[in-house]
Amino acid sequence: MSHESNWRRELAAALSFITRVPVPWTWCDGADMGRASRWFSTIGILIGLWSWLWLWALAPLLGQPLAAVLAVIATIVFTGALHQDGLADLCDGFWGGWERERKLAIMKDSQIGSYGVLALIGAFSLSVLAITSLPMAAALPVLLLAHSGSRAVAGLVPKLLSYARLEGPSKTPQANKPIAGDHLLTLWSPPVLMLIYGASAGLGALFWPLVIGWAVSLGAMLWLMKRHIQGYTGDTLGATQQVVEIVTLLIAVAVLGS
């Protein structure tokens, strides 16, 4: 199989994994899902563009607050609430159990608890309010940065921690996979390009606040994972994506104003 065929299959596999876009199985048949995870930040650009299109189309008709609500809902539907599910499971597990094994068992349970519900309400509210407060002219680069950068930051976790579950099936494509240099290059190229694009669009003031915010968010999530379960799971990757996405939006509001 050629190198070009490999990356096309990986890209199709990544698209099918983190969105609800109907991808024919033949497009990604044989793709290594561990390797395909390097394209998650690239798919994040598509997700950010999808969110912005809803905001751009509906804001003139309904006003920015209602458009922001519908843009966030449309994005959740587009991604199948994959990362929101991880955030809810992390909060239920980390703060709903005392022992490591109990925390992991709660995170694996399909039912949602009070911690998870509150986390989802908080995440949804913060996302909507932040997008509502963004200047419309800055919404496109900010949403691209939020969705691409958050997936790149989450993609660093398997490089820095070991997988927490020792047995049973895993839905985490990065589990126990070596993260090579070319993987990180592919993963981080889109958000770096988005930072350059943002600077060219007059948003250069965002660069260092975002870099610092991403680093602090990653450090905080790694600390929580090590403290509670001594590693990472797919749920913690999804939760990391959500936290970094929201942090990106809040930093953009703080720096750019409304």
UniProtKB/TrEMBL annotation:
<dbReference type="GO" id="GO:0009236">
    <property type="term" value="P:cobalamin biosynthetic process"/>
</dbReference>
<keyword id="KW-1133">Transmembrane helix</keyword>
<dbReference type="GO" id="GO:0005886">
    <property type="term" value="C:plasma membrane"/>
</dbReference>
<protein>
    <recommendedName>
        <fullName>Adenosylcobinamide-GDP ribazoletransferase</fullName>
        <ecNumber>2.7.8.26</ecNumber>
    </recommendedName>
</protein>
<keyword id="KW-0169">Cobalamin biosynthesis</keyword>
<comment type="pathway">
    <text>Cofactor biosynthesis; adenosylcobalamin biosynthesis; adenosylcobalamin from cob(II)yrinate a,c-diamide: step 7/7.</text>
</comment>
<keyword id="KW-0808">Transferase</keyword>
<keyword id="KW-0460">Magnesium</keyword>
<comment type="function">
    <text>Joins adenosylcobinamide-GDP and alpha-ribazole to generate adenosylcobalamin (Ado-cobalamin). Also synthesizes adenosylcobalamin 5'-phosphate from adenosylcobinamide-GDP and alpha-ribazole 5'-phosphate.</text>
</comment>
<feature type="transmembrane region" description="Helical">
    <location>
        <begin position="65"/>
        <end position="82"/>
    </location>
</feature>
<feature type="transmembrane region" description="Helical">
    <location>
        <begin position="39"/>
        <end position="59"/>
    </location>
</feature>
<feature type="transmembrane region" description="Helical">
    <location>
        <begin position="112"/>
        <end position="132"/>
    </location>
</feature>
<comment type="similarity">
    <text>Belongs to the CobS family.</text>
</comment>
<feature type="transmembrane region" description="Helical">
    <location>
        <begin position="205"/>
        <end position="225"/>
    </location>
</feature>
<dbReference type="InterPro" id="IPR003805">
    <property type="entry name" value="CobS"/>
</dbReference>
<keyword id="KW-1003">Cell membrane</keyword>
<keyword id="KW-0812">Transmembrane</keyword>
<keyword id="KW-0472">Membrane</keyword>
<dbReference type="Pfam" id="PF02654">
    <property type="entry name" value="CobS"/>
</dbReference>
<dbReference type="GO" id="GO:0051073">
    <property type="term" value="F:adenosylcobinamide-GDP ribazoletransferase activity"/>
</dbReference>
<dbReference type="GO" id="GO:0008818">
    <property type="term" value="F:cobalamin 5'-phosphate synthase activity"/>
</dbReference>
